[in-house]
Amino acid sequence: MTSAASPAFEPAASTWLDRRFAFRARGSDVRTEVLAGFTTFFTMAYVVVVNPAILGMAGMPIAGVATATCIGSLLACLIMGFLADVPVAMAPGMGLNAYFSFTVVQQMHLPWQVGLVCVFLSGLFFLVLTRLGVRQMVMSVIPHHLLAAVAAGIGMFIALIGLKNAGIVVANPETIVALGKMTAPGPLLSLVGLALIMALTLLGVRGAILISILVTTVIGIATGMAPVAAAHQGWADMGSTILALDPAWAWRLFGHGWGVLEVVFVFLFVDLFENIGTLVAVTRKAGLVRPDGSIPGLNRMLYADSISSMIGALLGTTTVTSYVESATGVEVGGRSGLTAVITGLLFLVALPFAPYAQLVPLAATAPALIVVGALMMAPLIEIDWNKSEEAIPAFLALVMIPLTFSIANGLAFGITAHALIKALRREFTRENALLFVLAVLFVFRFAYIAGV
Question: Is the full-model pTM beyond 0.90?
Fold first, then answer.
């Protein structure tokens, strides 16, 4: 959709902007790009609250993470806008932040400072793989149906965390999980938030998730259903996570065992394929894909992603990646990197509110996780469930991620099953060599975990 702006509305700097971002050649203008930037921001602004809430469960200071989220998103959007010139906004990704808190820190017992080193290394390896062109080789051995299953499995993982935080799903020694007490304050507040998101979405209101979080927070505090934390983190805590990955941690990193290599691999793998999927979807919607299906400047987009992930780790947050919510900005006419730049500047406007992120109760952010998880189910339609060679590996990847609370386990089961099917069919080709190597490594991983 294009927008015809009157000359009087165009700022004096529009000529320079057009030379820099070439939005006129793509059928856009300054007003449309600004509107698209605002639209994208309000659609994904929930990350400013939800990301600190999730990483706070890893023991990270919430005010510091909120600051890192705002600054990291600002810099990432600027890099994507100026380097790649596409309307793709970036921020810390949902899913990997949950993996960081629940698997890396809580289950593997790695200090969160070590986890940030893993995030930095994954971004560095991503940069190297992109520079060497190895990215195409890695992508060629993992089938699309498995990538779709992993994406949906991460969505189920996020939704399960949301249901758990809300108190809607609770642990049960006899049935593993059970329905919580729905009349308790937490579940009630979360259900109000969930209903509000659905109502606002049906009405076409932009920023429905963010509005729901703010409204339910106010309701929770006003009614006493979500009391304010006694220890308030203020302005002095805003920089508490910056450069927390002290270089000394890097030297001691591998003293924590082979599990660290797995963590780096998961961050790298998930970021690589989630990012590719998002870039394809958003650039296709923006009409920036060539007739042959290739994406102009794809490497520049991947460079922006990898550099942003390293910057995010230095600031104190998990993997920064492209957001599919960018499609909302494209929908209103955003076609250039100026959309991403505007979105990034709005994260700067949100920065002063970072110290107050801890005031938001888990029951208020839980509906956001449930809805985001639901939206990540879309790739499942790309799997041919009538073909067992697709259905079995995809199903294993899909269910093992939420059931074992680990993205790594889902990847391991899915890739190993896919490789086994290839082996049973005697499809031993040079192209499949990397696939079999990965499968063997995962088998050794299972043996290592079992203590064999």
Answer: no
Residue 268, CA distances (Å) to 99, 398, 408 in order: 13, 19, 11
Rounded CA gap, 235 and 254, in Å? 35
Does a structural domain hold residue 3? Answer: no
Segment 198-231, tens digit of pLDDT:
999 899 887 788 888 889 989 988 888 766 554 4
User: Which amino acid is it at 192?
Assistant: V
Which pLDDT score is estimated for 255? 57
Range of the domain at 122: 9-227+237-450
Q: Among all chains, which residue has been given the structure tokens 């009538």?
A: 386
In a domain, 4, yes or no: no
Give the max Cα distance, the chain: 74
Is the sign of the CA dihedral 420, 421, 426, 428 positive or negative?
Answer: negative
Please state whether beta strands 176-179 and 169-172 pair in parallel, antiparallel, or not at all (unpaired).
antiparallel
306: nearest Cα among 319, 325, 324, 318: 319
Q: Which of 126, 122, 116 is nearest to 68 (CA)?
A: 116
Average pLDDT (291-302) is 78
What CA–CA distance (Å, rounded) separates 111 from 89?
30
Which parts of 238-361 fold into alpha helices (H)? 247-252, 259-285, 298-315, 326-331, 337-350
Q: Has residue 88 been placed in a domain?
A: yes
Cα–Cα distance for residue pair 357/210, rounded to 1 Å:
13
SS3 24: helix
Among residues 9, 6, 41, 10, which one has the least CA distance to residue 332? Answer: 41
Q: Is 411:117 a contact under the CB 8 Å cutoff?
A: no
At what angle are helices 388-403 and 144-166 packed, to 10 degrees? 30
Print burial letters for 71-95: b (CB count within 10 Å at least 16), e (below 16): bbbbbbbbbbbbbbbbbbbbbbbbb
The total domain count for the chain is: 1
- Return the SS3 of 42: helix
Closest by Cα among 158, 88, 195 to 375: 158
Could you please report the per-residue DSSP string of 371-429?
HHHHHTTGGGGGS-TT-HHHHHHHHHHHHHHHHTT-HHHHHHHHHHHHHHHHHHTT---
Q: Would you list the DSSP string of 258-285?
A: THHHHHHHHHHHHHHHHHHHHHHHHHHH
> Would 147 be classed as within a structural domain?
yes
pLDDT in tens, 392-425: 999 999 999 889 887 778 888 998 999 999 899 8
The answer to whether 118 touches 310, Cβ cutoff 8 Å, is no
